[in-house]
UniProtKB/TrEMBL annotation:
Keyword S-adenosyl-L-methionine among UniProt keywords: no
EC number(s) per entry: 2.4.1.-
GO molecular function annotations of the record: UDP-glycosyltransferase activity
Keywords associated with the record: Glycosyltransferase, Transferase
SUPFAM superfamilies in alphabetical order: UDP-Glycosyltransferase/glycogen phosphorylase
Domain of life: Eukaryota
Family: Belongs to the UDP-glycosyltransferase family.
Record lineage: Eukaryota, Viridiplantae, Streptophyta, Embryophyta, Tracheophyta
Protein's name according to its UniProt entry: Glycosyltransferase
Gene behind the chain: MUGT14
PROSITE patterns xref list: UDPGT
UniProt entry tagged with the keyword Isomerase: no
The organism of origin for this protein: Mentha piperita
Length: 472
């Protein structure tokens, strides 16, 4: 819209593919649909190469991606330091770097947007008289929990995981103790304190942007608008501006897989992938391989080497995509599935795959980017959450959105359960209704982003507010 054409916005992205992607996608959206000039400051670390070196993220001509000098937090972390703590430490150390970068800009951007790990950087906006926004590239239910946590922190005694009743967030779907997000697993861990601070700081922003839309997050949105108790805690507008997802990136290396998919019937292939950071223990890989084989369904599986450690082990160590012999798969597996299965080592062009008409299901870890990429392509989900807020996402997708089925959770999900889930999704009646629902949501997501749609309107509202605060 012409009113926002002179605006300039700075976005800070925290390390991690799952954080850089939504920041760049938001920047591209602001540029392409609202004429906003955008700079994305990418926080980088000494420890791992910047994600932008490994991912080819197309940028709109109004968007500039700037790597901040790397931060070094190695002296502050040990083997047990959790991902959320690491991210918060990295962002804290990047504060002076981001502040200098903003100070050097002339004219200065009218608004600063940080993701939820970067809330301490909002003080930079205050320093330079900029509007301050938090972009939570996830759903409204997760945002509501984060914002309400400072209250739960006062109300709930003992560990959340030991509660016998679900945690109440006024007006919202309650959160079951077994579904709480990682930083709530242990209240004595530093990441819990970081997470409580995050909730408090988010409430002091000028607004919170969420990568979801009215139809998908209807229940939480009603609570955010109407529930007085919740509103008295949250205090700041929560705006649903999604679904914002990456476009398909043309990639020459994918030809073999794409031509294999071209030869498969429509909606006949299940795509199996656990995001940028997910890895499975050996025992689970074995069961998954057997489950896929026994299901007799076609599949594309992004296979990673097993971990002995944490399921988020790959989070800061994005693979280089080199081939390696999958010695950790069951004996003879490759031969037995050669006509129905396609294995991709470590990293796949996920959006390109999900867009292909042959794909009919996604066995996913339910990271929010993956979730949206699935929904916006009308692909129903088998929810296999691993870490972060993924258990909440899985519950939301299965119980509120109606687009996912969830295998019975167990330390190791057995082959029979996997076989049953894959068959149900691809061939069963339940699968059919999930597919219908996800296609409706695909359409409503499209509508939300059009001029006059709910998400487009919300973004216009934010930009008008930024423009008017700039004029003051
Ligand atoms: N991704 C990809 N290829 C892979 C794994 C992941 O392109 O093999 C992309 C995926 O499409 C998504 C992002 O990486 O955009 C992962 O983000 P998500 O929020 O799903 O999960 P996270 O990686 O943060 O756990």
């Amino acid at each position: 819209t012409s009113s926002s054409c002179n605006l300039h916005v700075a976005i800070v992205s925290s390390p991690g593919v799952g954080h850089l992607i939504p920041a760049v996608v938001l920047g591209n959206r602001l540029a392409a649909h609202h004429g906003v000039r955008v700079v994305v400051f990418q926080v980088t670390t000494e420890a791992s190469p910047p994600e932008s070196k490994l991912l080819k993220l197309p940028l709109h001509q109004l968007v500039e991606l700037v790597e901040l000098p790397p931060v070094d937090i190695s002296h502050l972390v040990g083997p047990t330091t959790q991902v959320v703590t690491q991210l918060c430490l990295m962002l804290r150390h990047a504060r002076p770097l981001a502040s200098s970068a903003v100070a050097a800009m002339d004219p200065r951007p009218a608004a600063l947007v940080v993701d939820h790990f970067g809330t301490e950087l909002l003080s930079i906006a205050a320093e330079f008289g900029m509007a301050k926004y938090v972009y939570v590239p996830s759903n409204a239910w997760f945002a509501a929990l984060t914002l309400y946590l400072p209250v739960l922190d006062q109300q709930v005694e003992g560990q959340y995981v030991d509660q016998t009743e679900p945690l109440e967030i006024p007006g919202c779907k309650p959160v079951r103790p077994e579904d709480v997000v990682d930083p709530m697993l242990d209240r004595n861990d530093q990441q819990y304190d970081e997470y409580v601070k995050m909730g408090l700081a988010m409430a002091s922003s000028d607004g919170i942007l969420i990568n979801s839309w009215e139809d998908l997050d209807h229940k939480t949105l009603q609570a955010l608008r109407k529930n007085e108790t919740l509103k008295s805690v949250i205090k700041t507008p929560v705006l649903l501006v999604g679904p914002l997802t990456r476009p398909v990136e043309p990639d020459g290396q994918n030809i073999k897989l794409m031509s294999w998919l071209d030869r498969q019937p429509n909606e006949s292939v299940v795509f199996v992938s656990f995001g940028s950071g997910g890895v499975l223990p050996q025992a689970q890989i074995t069961e998954l391989a057997w489950g896929l084989e026994l299901s007799q369904q076609r599949f594309v599986w992004v296979v990673r080497r097993p971990t002995d450690g944490r399921v988020d082990d790959a989070f800061f160590a994005l693979s280089d995509g080199t081939d390696e012999a999958p010695t950790f798969l069951p004996n003879g597996f490759m031969g037995r599935v050669q006509n129905v299965g396609f294995l991709v080592p470590k990293w796949a062009q996920q959006v390109q795959i999900l867009t292909h008409p042959a794909i009919g299901g996604f066995l996913s870890h339910c990271g929010w980017n993956s979730t949206l990429e699935s929904i916006t392509n009308g692909v129903p989900i088998i929810a296999w959450p691993l870490y972060a807020e993924q258990k909440m996402n899985a519950t939301f997708l299965a119980e509120e959105a109606g687009v996912a089925l969830r295998p019975r959770a167990a330390p190791v999900v057995g082959r029979a359960e996997i076989e049953r889930s894959v068959r149900t999704l691809m061939e069963g009646e339940d699968g059919k209704s999930l597919r219908e629902k996800v296609k409706q949501l695909k359409m409503s997501g499209n509508e939300a982003l059009k001029v006059g749609g709910s998400s487009h309107n919300s973004m216009c509202e934010v930009l008008a507010k930024i423009a008017s605060s700039k004029g003051q």
